[in-house]
Amino acid sequence: MLKSTGLHPWQLIAFFAAGGLYLTCYFARYNLSAATPGILTEFEYSKEKFGWITTVFTVVYAAGQFVNGWLADRFGPKPLLVVGGLGCVVANVCFGHSRSFDAFALSWAMNAYFSSMLWSSCCRIVYNWFPRNRWGFWKGALLTMSFAGGALGMTLSAYVIKEYGWRAAFFMPPAFLWAATSLFFVFGRNSPQDAGFQPQWEEAIEPGQSERKFGLADYIAALSNFKMNLAYLAGAGEKMVRIGILTWFIVILKEPVASGGFGLTLAQSSMMTSLAFWGGVALCIPFGVITDRVFGGQRWQTMVIGFLISAAGLACLAQVDFILSCSHKLLLIGASIFVCGGTIQALETPLYVLPGQILGKERGATGVGIMGGCMYIGASASGAFLGWWLDHYSVSSMLLLLAGVCVFSSAVSATIRR
């Protein structure tokens, strides 16, 4: 029997097996951010053209999320996590061997689809293994691990690129994902029942009683719920800002001052951008605890506050001329990125708790998948659109645009009241 209070070793095994896999999947995703300057130089792509690769990723990822969350609810999360992890490794190897724009786009589209199998499956692991009043903390812990993976992966990729060239970033970091997927295959479990436990917070299935069938009606209910539609919209704004930061900040920080950028080195740019991940690492669990305890399980207050803080950080970073005139410019840049990037990422803690809370655990992964799909529709604008924006307008204007998206998403969050 798994008790509602306390912590059983199998809960930790299940959580860290899935969390370790998701942490290392970021090694095979944000390596592209570190490799982007080298690819742009070697192939002489414009930012707008290269942005289509990240747009393809977000569109395919969104489409996959709409399907794979439902599959995780119907068939269990473990098969999707194993197939998705191994598929991401193969896609990265293909990208590393690519020598044309079409090959880059196709390989990264493959990476997007396999990546889309992972997040909703990890969320279902949390829904299955922990009671509702602890979802905020454990979702925050899961996001903390994922953002730590992003920071470590981006830093590792920058080091690998410096020593071996940009192609090596698609072979060496993804090897960690292969190892983590292998460990999950051995130790991961779909639910407490798969490990031989009955959760105290759930009713046991009586002998001869069949489990409830999960079908298309559940998907339609998750897609049409009004409160969830508001959450999907707020999530789309969050993801546009988050992916915009993680896709383009290395580029704009490395951009020469004469071209409107900050004029940093690749190493400095990678380190500064990784602070967005470390901000998420620092803030995800506190955001989860705040939603669980301070606001009594209500999520919308944390979302409103978080979006506004992120908007303020982006507005501060938009003061490019002022920052460059300061003697402590690296400190100002780092602090602004930590605040805006960390807060926008920590917002995923309350956002991804909402599906299980509003729709129930049985439809939770489906709601997470639909939310992820909607979020990455928003994120698709961070690729080609923001690349086009940077080709035609200033860095400052792009940062203020993202700040405006944060303010809009804050207003939407205030109407959810859950």
Residues in helices, as a percent range = over 70%
- H-E string: HHHHHHHHHHHHHHHHHH
What structural class is derived from the secondary structure elements? mainly alpha
Task: Calculate Rg over CA atoms.
Answer: 21 Å
- Give the overall pLDDT as a whole number: 90
Can you tell me the number of structural domains?
1
Overall strand count: 0
What would you give as the CATH superfamily?
MFS general substrate transporter like domains
Specify the CATH class: Mainly Alpha
Discrete helix count: 18
Overall shape: globular
Beta-strand percentage range? under 5%
What's the architecture in CATH terms? Up-down Bundle
CATH fold node name? Growth Hormone, Chain: A
Describe the structure.
It is a single chain. The protein is built from 18 helices and no strands. By secondary structure, the chain is an all-alpha fold. It has a single domain, classed as MFS general substrate transporter like domains (Growth Hormone, Chain: A), CATH 1.20.1250. Helix 1 packs antiparallel against helix 6. The protein is globular, with a radius of gyration of 21 Å. The mean pLDDT is 90.
